[in-house]
Hints:
The protein is an alpha+beta fold. The chain is 31% helix and 12% strand.
Amino acid sequence: MLTSQKIKETALAAGADLCGIGPMSRFEGAPVEMDPRYLFPEAKSCIAFAFRIPRGVQRGIEQGTQFYQYPSMAYGGINEIFAPSVLYHVGKLIEDEGFEAFLYRNTGARGSVSDMDGAPGNTISPEEQINNNEHDKNKTAHHRTVQFTRATRPENTAPDLQFHFRLAAVICGLGEIGWSKMFLSPEFGPLQRLAFIFTDAELEYDEMYSGKPLCRRCGACVRECPGHLIPKLGDESRTVRINIAGKTIEWGDTDFWKCYAYYTHTGRYYNPFVPKAVWDENKNGDLDLFEGVTDKADEKTVVRAYTALENYFPTWVGYNMAKCGGCIRGCVSALERKGGCMETRFKKPLRTGKAWKMDR
Ligand code: SF4
Ligand code: SF4
């Protein structure tokens, strides 16, 4: 007989670090383009899996010594290898019991609305991207929507919707969303990535997290974001507040287009791969977003910046070369030092000295 306990035991044995299960009914109220009930209308249960990000893969970024382990291990490795293999194992268990397992790994699809700002079809499609790659020698990958996709029948939304992973993890009882919009679990703070299975099996459900607040409202994420794009705590005009199954959840309305530029390139003080002269010259104003000339980030400004800095990528791992993670490391450090959920996890804190910054 298929039980929640059996699913969780299988998931942990296969390599997941956390597993929680919630009913699909908790998605009531989600925007249509982000409601996973449109993916598999017969599904009764959502199973969430968390895969820890080893703190040490950010050590190099923390100290300015090494930059590609984080994107390759903690983005690529988890999303492409570790998590799919667990989904595959648990999916087999579910299907051996006669139920269906709709596996949903992280990344690999683009929704019918932009995952940056929710706007429908405002960014280039994969076809346009391919055209760019072939003819314009532009290798950046900014297709954030599949803008020509249409619903296959009137009662549906367009296929390949992207649901809200962090909310789904909350629904499954794994933790909460912090002010920075990162998902926080009691076990790993902000250090995990997520994957899901939807199934038509009815299971025993976890309660949503109701312990001590995981987000300390400390503002470390706000202070340590090089793009200054996470709103100040308490800024009501930039607070997102929603209600899920009776639980109010809120976070800061971060500027994701700006994050898209900064988490990869970080600007002159935190990117040792781009010569100072390039920032100084700021040819054609392509780097205005980093140099404080404009604060307005959108598809156009981000593509300009990526194109201008393309030659300085030290490697290509299939994922953007994240050099930032300031919000994550700031959060880890705060949760270790200020009585947060990571207080007793490591023998030594992440941070023992002052954060680095290039003098230029
Ligand atoms: S990844 Fe970097 S740029 Fe993006 S919100 Fe976090 S600190 Fe800011
Ligand atoms: S850094 Fe502080 S305010 Fe930001 S998400 Fe973490 S605990 Fe919350």
